[in-house]
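Every protein is a chain of amino acids, and every chain bends into a shape of its own. The protein below has been through that process, and both of its lines are reproduced in full.
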Amino acid sequence: MPTSPEPVRPITLDEIREARARIAKTIIRTPLVRLELGPDFPDIRLKLENLQPINAYKLRGAANAVAMLSEAERQKGVWTISAGNAGQGVAYAARQARVPCTVVAIETAPTSKLDRMRALGARLVLVPYDVAWKALEERAYAGVEGTFVHPFDDHNFIAGHATMGLEIFEDAPDTAAVIAGIGGGGLVTGVGTALKALNPAIKVWGAEPETAAPTALSLAAGSAQVFKDWKPSFVDGAGGQSVFPRMWERMRPVLDGCIVVSLEQVKQAMRLMAEKARIISEGAGALPLAAALTGKAGPGPIVAIVSGGNIDLKKFAELIGH
């Protein structure tokens, strides 16, 4: 049965601070490191969410969302829809809470992500991307029962992601801009909400691949749009087929713009992080660095959020080796 979402409402700083205390024993406070590129490049710092226990930021939101479920909701078990990282986050949090977990997973997700979800105890139901996207809109999938945890359109999930904004502001109060990859929009909404509350002058940018850029299209049109030329790519953790109207309502107040980059620019950013900082990033995690390197977000200081590092090593070597 489809679940009815609660009305969209702003997330408060108090809610974000409460979320930070709630998830403190589950997540780690990830480091913020300067990427040394020289005077001809923007001043870029990397927020290394690839170092979380599941190697992705989604654990923040998942841990908060699962922790806030009622006992009755937990007894039903939980399920989510994911290309990999949200599924790992919900499975990790569910395992800690001793709650059964099912993930409706995109069948083309990297093997490493599918294997990690299974290792965390999740039951997987593999479906094509468009089927998963439809299930996200309907908040239901035939044959899967339990309490649905939406991987981005969920107030508590977003409040968990927003805790990252508190860390960024505390570690780099001179930040001029922050860039986050956009898939569903939960990350940029959460981080942007926290930072705008702390310092409205900080610019919040999204980043999307040219093959899947509905947010940039929506900003140009002034309303939530479908990206009709959507194509799958190795940037599987970002770039949706559309912007959900509810997520547009959440994102629009905190988003200053969206930078679209080519797949080649993403590969170059992955290679640069590996060479300069010995960081393994998945495609979506390298999007913000690729966007920062265009210069469109200004000279900095810019925080580029490395959202995850879940990528098959063979694929990683292939992408950065060209």
Notes: Residues 39 and 299 are 10 Å apart (CA to CA).
